[in-house]
Design a protein that fits this description.
It is built from 11 helices and 7 strands. Helix 4 packs antiparallel against helix 5.
Length: 202
């Protein structure tokens, strides 16, 4: 079956994301910055939010372990948008071309629900999307098969009807198993080529 819609991941596919962008503004010493990101605000700690844990809980636990880092930890919430400096290169143009071709666009993202609501008004690239499933609001994350089933049902898509683009191989493998046509993101140019090969007019 030829896919008729495209489902995108958000972080590091549509938008660049890394906590380092925020903390490089707060920690001048590169050695201290590396230590902080490896030991305090780690990506493993962050992923709790993607599963739906509120920042009030996770930050309290982390501040109890690192009380001298309290202000920096709290900045993760108050300055969350600094972790996403802008769209990935070439992606606004690709999205615009898909919109011009009248291809339905959706997103399935591992993302804190509360952080999403803070950031989404700044993300104009997503204005053209017909629907988004945010893991933190659903209490489950990719690559759980249940979140793909939920997304397909919510988007009104059947097996083989959606191309899915994500930067993680495990998420793409799970998408393939769930009936999407998965592709590992490696840049806007090669994604455009892949979409064209799948029959999309871009």
């Amino acid at each position: 079956m030829t896919p008729v819609a495209v489902v995108f991941d958000v972080g590091n596919v549509l938008y660049d994301w890394d906590p380092r962008y925020l903390y490089a503004k707060l920690i001048a010493d590169p050695v201290e910055l590396d230590w902080f990101l490896a030991n305090v605000v780690t990506k493993d700690w962050h992923f709790q939010h993607d599963r739906g844990r509120p920042f009030a809980e996770t930050s309290a636990e982390l501040i109890a372990r690192f009380p001298d880092q309290a202000a920096r930890i709290r900045a993760y919430e108050t300055r969350w948008t600094d972790t996403l400096p802008g769209p990935m290169p070439g992606m606004p143009e690709l999205v615009a071309d898909l919109v011009a071709a009248r291809i339905p666009l959706f997103a399935l993202t591992n993302y804190s629900g509360e952080f999403w609501r803070q950031w989404r008004p700044t993300a104009r690239l997503l204005d053209a999307f017909a629907g988004v499933v945010v893991s933190g609001d659903e209490g489950m994350t990719k690559p759980d098969p249940a979140i793909y089933a939920l997304a397909l049902a919510r988007f009104g898509l059947g097996p083989g009807e959606a191309a899915f683009i994500d930067d993680r191989t495990d998420n793409v493998a799970a998408a393939d198993a769930a009936g999407l046509i998965g592709h590992v993101f490696a840049g806007a140019g090669e994604t455009r080529d892949w979409l064209r090969g799948e029959g999309f007019a871009v």
